[in-house]
Amino acid sequence: FDGKTGSQLKPFLAKFDILARRCQWNEEMKVDMLKCNLTGAAAQLLWDDPSCQSYGQLVVKLNQRFGEENQSECFRAKLKVRKQGKDESLSSLMQDIRRMMILAYPNSSSDLGKIMAKECFLDAIYDKNLSLKIREHSPVDLDAAFQLAVKFEAYAVLSGAPKGEDRYRGSMVQTVASPDQDCDPTDERSLKAFIA
After folding, report:
1. In terms of pTM, does the model score above 0.85?
2. Position 102 pLDDT exceeds 80
3. C-alpha closest to that of 78 among 111, 124, 41, 114
């Protein structure tokens, strides 16, 4: 564990505990193995506080410095401003929204949390027209919104529509003859190109 992303501490400790139980490590072995698996900022903890000698103390210190519990406000702010990257898949966006919801609201599994996750996902979608189309179908939660997004995106790809927000603008954009282009009003093709 390197300490760079606090959201990774909980899974790291869960995996470490499974390994410790399977290998039947005693308390001293758990401390040594945990210390050996800390790198970067997390390893700095060993130098900053050498008094951490028990496994429990070390886990408490790691949680205080890198745990999610003290970062829920930060994750709430990140969730509000989260936007889909141009090359980011809907699946990746949905998984990240779900992860950030858990970190922002660790003890919430209510219907309100499901609605908030759905709204964050819809607000984060790069293609605002796609987001609007999904909203028109009133999905009840994040999973339903994601399924609609994937379905509508697949339909758009099958129809040959351009990617992103341009997908819905194609029929509204008109081609105008450039000033450099010769436009002979008696030539029917030039006239059609100019009007189109």
Report:
1. no
2. yes
3. 124
